[in-house]
Design brief:
Low-confidence stretches: none
Largest sheet: 6 strands, mixed
Oligomer: single chain
Structural class: alpha+beta
Mean pLDDT: 92
Shape: elongated
Strand content: 35-45%
Number of helices: 9
Distance between the termini: 48 Å
Strand order of the largest sheet: 6-7-8-3-9-10
Amino acid sequence: MSATFQSFKSLRLDRVGRDFGRHNALKEIDFSIERGEFVALLGPSGCGKSTALNCIAGLLPTTRGSIWLDETRIDVLGPEERGFGMVFQNYALFPHMTIRDNVGFGLRMRGVARAEAGKRVESALATVRLTDQADKLPGQLSGGQQQRVAIARAIVIEPPLVLMDEPLSNLDAKLRLEMRQEIRRIHAGLGSITLYVTHDQDEAMSLADRIVVMRAGEVRQIGTPEDLYERPLHLDVADFMGYRNRIPCRVLTRSGGMASIDVAGAQLEGSIRGTLVGDEAVAAIRPDDLCVADVGLDAVVEACEYRGHNFFGSARGPGGVELFFRSPKRVDFGTAVKLAAEPAKVLLYDGAAT
């Protein structure tokens, strides 16, 4: 059955829900992915991203809704009929099999002829740059190499979708960066869909063409990395995308998409996100964008550390709010400073969003 999916155009989730008893793990989520796209499901632990992936894979049945590859409904098919490639967090390699045999296992289960299977295994090993490791056992490889074996095993069956569930979480920081490049390179050569689950926003932004941000079983925003980084629609999305400064404020004036706000007597200009119903609002600012200035929020520095090109610190601001800021030079503990950001970098959300 899966052979009919090789020329597919898109994957679509239509009001997909999944319940565990009384708990709604997925609340009628909708999104579609076009062939060739790399899409990341991003969110904190428990948001439903792995549940969504497992429903797409067929490892979990849906409670309601439907999943489609073009005009074929696939949520009624078993996982083996969908023919998707899966890459797990723990590699899931057979320790007693050679790398070549691990990669070819799925082809043997599908009854692919030995000569054809051999060609595809060699091609997959070449794709992940492990041809010279083919006769070793998994235990003889590094963690990064084992993850590449898992990817080769997923792609050797020539799947319409490659589903990856936090595949880099067990690797150290250096290997994660190297594997990001490998995964993106491999995806570019496949021409299929890669759906990637992660809780790491940097990972999602570096890999994905589009990101689906989830919270509590719901899709909160779908967009390019640039959309989510610069224009988060909701305060919780902004918070997850690195806007660590959340400052209660009062709206003084509005003009178009901009507003003047008051924070304990200091005035800032900001960009309105969504609808500001009343005068109470929350200003969200990235630490990279909040800097020491001549005019701005009064604060007292509590910590400052060097991170390469800049110093980053924390300070106690108006009303005791903790502020994270950037500075071109070290600022000593206890120093009184003023902190400000460009109006376009100060995102204003309705106070009810808290």
